[in-house]
Fold:
Amino acid sequence: QQQVKQSPQSLIVQKGGISIINCAYENTAFDYFPWYQQFPGKGPALLIAIRPDVSEKKEGRFTISFNKSAKQFSLHIMDSQPGDSATYFCAASKSRTGANNLFFGTGTRLTVIP
Amino acid sequence: DSGVTQTPKHLITATGQRVTLRCSPRSGDLSVYWYQQSLDQGLQFLIQYYNGEERAKGNILERFSAQQFPDLHSELNLSSLELGDSALYFCASSAEGKSYNEQFFGPGTRLTVL
Structure:
């Protein structure tokens, strides 16, 4: 049972465009929502994260939008660059339990065309 | 570079064999997590250790076990290997305190079972 659902599976965007990846969850005990970027042959790298007490967080060209009532969150990549081509994973964890393992979405393969 | 190291990078072995994967967390991080990444299952949490003690268990098979040593490095032992155990195995670590949810992943060990 996939606790975090992610879409789309793949995404092709022109250079300079906006990439949008969406995730949804059911478990209201989740209270920490990170996004990871993974290049082929590498481990996932933490990109940006949000907690449900804020609706948006921005770091450079990356923005997380969070809708607590809808139990959805999304990653926006502004001015997408070919170097952003990678697989992106959303995730969620229950930080207050002490066992804060991550539940990952299935990943989105982003290709940015020059 | 996340600061998490994993050895070996690649491992090729036969069915029925036993292997040990090693992880050294970032300096000062007390928590170590093991994740398995496969094409059909995605990124799945296996087990978490905190300061030498098991804290959480995920979808870890009985043939798999792990431990964390006094110097905080961790080992994942996989025995009676099957073809379906072929995957990437990642270790992640996190600190305590305010940023303890942030998990930093190592480069992974690619296991191939023939």
Q: What stands out?
A: Chain A touches chain B through 22 residues (CB under 8 Å). The radius of gyration of chain A is 14 Å. The first strand of chain A starts at residue 4 and ends at 7.
